[in-house]
Amino acid sequence: MTQIDIGIDSESRLKTAEGLKKLLADSYTLYLQSHNFHWNVQGQHFRDLHLMFEEHYTELATAVDEIAERIRTLDVAAPGTFQEFARLSAVKEVDGVPCSSEMVDILTKGHEQVVKTAREVLKLAQAADDESSAALISDRMRIHEKTAWMLRTLQK
Fold first, then answer.
1. Which domains does the chain show, CATH number per domain?
2. Where does the record place the Ferritin/DPS domain (predicted)?
């Protein structure tokens, strides 16, 4: 394959890609949590939460692919194992099956964590003048901020 020449220096590409790896790991961990909670939610609001969690993990499945492909576009290998995701992710896995209200709280915090990770990675992309990565990251932030807001309304 020919050498990459997209107007971003190698060091900046690597820094942005390393940040995107963290965003990918956070997103994938949140995907797994959302899917787990979709399968295991119980209680009075089962149907609403079951469907909402499905919407979340479906959206996240597309997101992880887009983030991984952006990492590859920057000519860096994307992480793809549980071990790598666990090492890179700031979203931590949950033991057992929490009650539905705890699920909502855990997912709210997970989406908020993804936003915080995205904010850090956005700075790297902007410093590199990497508009494509910045646009992707900004889009992810907006989606996670809105999802966290919607989840927070269930806690009142």
1. 10-153 (1.20.1260.10)
2. 18-154
